[in-house]
Write a structure and sequence with these properties.
Number of helices: 6
Shape: globular
Structural class: alpha/beta
CATH architecture: 3-Layer(aba) Sandwich
Radius of gyration: 17 Å
Helix content: 25-40%
Bound molecules: zinc ion
Distance between the termini: 32 Å
Length: 206
């Protein structure tokens, strides 16, 4: 499966000058929501991810995603793995399990994101369910930004990756691209201005 092509065709792999939530600038941006707006395509991608996970022969009871970004990919992954799906969300900044979701003792959970960058939200989501008795067996995402190491990937794990190194990360593709501190950004030096992707309220097609 040509994941990069799928992202490009869905206008989800953007080229420009972006201000990331980390405060850094970048020439590229991944907008998984644009891929996931097609339910059939989402299902196909999740099935492909499930195939990788099944190869590893890990027992999984439940898929858990951090809201909001991970919910669509996690829900489709749960369908493909024939597992239960739950999500965590931030309450006053703390990732929490709400909505009446329950965890059984030693329930085997895989955390699923759309994209793993440093894995910060994924790890917070893992902590929320671990504190309630779950056992985290793996992490997963449609795309890996290349800071953490996925099963089958070629990159070295970076010091900014927050995921535990004794747990596998499954993802369909590595999307590595440079990010810059604003004062060292070559795009700024060329005179353009970084903008926050995804902050527009929708583009009207005419
Ligand atoms: Zn810049």
């Amino acid at each position: 499966m040509q994941i990069k092509n799928i992202y490009e065709n869905a206008n989800a792999y953007l080229k420009g000058h972006f201000l990331l939530s980390s405060g850094k600038h970048s020439e590229y941006y991944l907008q998984s929501a644009k891929v996931l707006e097609d339910p059939k395509l989402s299902e196909k991608l999740a099935k492909e991810l499930a195939k990788e996970i099944k190869k590893a022969n890990i027992k999984i009871d439940t898929v858990c995603s951090p809201a909001l970004g991970g919910i669509l990919s996690g829900y489709e992954l749960a369908r493909a793995l024939n597992a239960r799906f739950i999500f965590t969300e931030r309450v006053d900044g703390v990732m929490s399990l709400r909505r009446g979701f329950e965890i059984s003792q030693d329930e085997k959970i895989i955390i699923c994101e759309d994209i793993i960058t440093t894995g910060g939200s994924a790890k917070e989501s893992a902590k929320a369910v671990k504190d309630l008795g779950a056992k985290i067996v793996a992490y997963s995402a449609l795309a890996n930004r290349g800071y953490c190491k996925r099963v089958g990937g070629n990159n070295e794990v970076s010091s900014i990756c927050k995921l535990e190194d004794d747990l596998p990360l499954f993802a369909l593709e590595d999307f590595y691209f440079e990010t810059y501190e604003p004062d060292k950004c070559p795009l700024c030096k060329d005179g353009s201005t970084a903008y926050k992707p995804g902050s527009n309220s929708g583009i009207k097609h005419t």
